[in-house]
Design goal:
seven-stranded mixed β-sheet
């Protein structure tokens, strides 16, 4: 298929896309200065609805109701938003998800609580290709608690398999920390199989859903997950620095030992008691004052995902990445580019990673042209294809531009 045919195919796919009209609800979708935004897996586009919500919030809830708004809804917002997220995106029943802190802080809280519940077990299992924050936090906990890190190796264009986990877990395994979708390759882990293996060994699992929540369906309850966390500024559209979310299975909430004891995680925070007594349920995950502003945009995106349906979002994601892989095979592979993501759509998230030694410089030139993919060391471009805001046409525009840059450099 020649390049003009790919452009025609992209138009045909956009015309047949049942979610195409939703793209118009995003700020900047028709910005002439940005011909292709392919970095929604790092920072999602904002929704136009959020402009209205933020304005109304400043003038009314904050500007008029002032401190009264804490009693009129703000204090309940973290758990309410968590329940909405659980129902729409995560496959979690009410009372198990809450919005608070950053991903880093929540990973620490959840892992530290899991280790404390581990009855003297001494090992944390994780993979060397996981996102740096996950590895750094677990390294710190291991040193803090006198534990050992047991490392898993992942295929460069894949991720951690159940077989690899089975070979690493044992009677000393307290916690396994893995990502649902690998940040670099986009590999989708077999969450239910891996979780079951860890449980058989007597350990618990903490899943990082930063690169899946909002683009790949999750069934945390049905998968029997122990703990999960993720950010909200990628496919959940919360904006830069938006708060993260945590999931703690109901069966683990009573033994959740909060490592960062703050007043709003206490059972009666306004009693200002002398001693910390944890709140019941998921509220005990909270430490300090909820990040109210950061939750507003998340609510708008959750509502849009609910309108579209997670199954339809996933179907669009598969179509987008399949189109990108097809274009890679015919246009980029002959130019020396390699695919660093799974070909199996059942094992591929919503981004596709391609590698070439010159991609760091290529990415800089693309940004100058208003074509925005994502670069990741050592030499990869990630094509982040956010199902609700990315079109097939702009996906092709980005791939065509990469080919043009490589030919020009040659």
């Amino acid at each position: 298929m020649n390049e003009s045919r790919f452009a025609e195919l992209a138009k045909e796919l956009d015309a047949a896309d049942p979610l195409a009209d939703l793209r118009e609800r995003f700020v900047g979708h028709n910005d002439p200065a940005i011909s292709a935004y392919l970095d929604g897996n790092s920072l999602g586009r904002p929704l136009a609805a959020t402009l209205d919500r933020l304005g109304e919030f400043v003038t009314h809830a904050w500007g008029s109701r002032l401190i009264r708004s804490w009693d009129e809804g703000w204090l309940a917002l973290p758990s309410a938003t968590g329940d909405q997220l659980g129902a729409t995106v995560l496959g979690a029943a009410p009372g198990q998800c809450i919005v608070a802190d950053s991903t880093t802080v929540l990973l620490y809280k959840l892992a530290r609580a899991a280790v404390a519940a581990g009855a003297g077990r001494t090992e944390i299992v994780l993979d060397r290709d996981n996102f740096p924050t996950d590895r750094y936090v677990m390294d710190g906990i291991a040193r803090e608690c006198g534990m050992t890190l047991r490392w898993l190796e992942a295929d460069y264009d894949g991720g951690v398999s159940p077989e690899a986990v089975a070979s690493a877990v044992g009677p000393q395994t307290a916690l396994v920390v893995l990502s649902h979708v690998a940040y670099r390759s986009g590999f989708i882990a077999d969450v239910p199989a891996i979780t079951a293996l860890v449980h058989e060994a007597g350990g618990r699992v903490l899943w990082d859903l930063c690169h899946s929540a909002g683009s790949v369906p999750a069934e945390l309850d049905n998968w029997n997950v122990d703990y999960a966390a993720g950010c909200s500024y990628k496919y959940l559209g919360g904006g830069p620095g938006a708060p993260a979310w945590a999931y703690v299975a109901r069966r683990h909430q009573e033994d959740f030992a909060q490592p960062i004891q703050g007043w709003l995680g206490a059972g009666d925070p306004f009693a200002m008691g002398a001693d910390y007594v944890p709140a019941a349920g998921i509220q005990r995950v909270v430490s300090g004052t909820p990040p109210i502003l950061g939750m507003l945009a998340i609510q708008d995106m959750i509502a849009l995902i609910a309108e579209a349906g997670m199954d339809a979002v996933r179907a669009k994601s598969v179509q987008l990445t399949s189109f990108a892989v097809q274009a890679f095979d015919e246009i980029l592979a002959p130019l020396g580019v390699t695919l660093a993501s799974p070909r199996d759509t059942a094992r591929r998230g919503s981004h596709v990673t391609i590698d070439h030694p010159s991609f760091k410089d290529v990415t800089a030139r693309l940004w100058e042209r208003g074509i925005i993919p994502d670069y990741r060391n050592p030499n990869g471009i990630r094509l982040g294809l956010s199902p609700l805001s990315t079109s097939f046409a702009e996906t092709w525009t980005g791939i065509e531009a990469i080919a043009s840059e490589l030919r020009h450099a040659a």
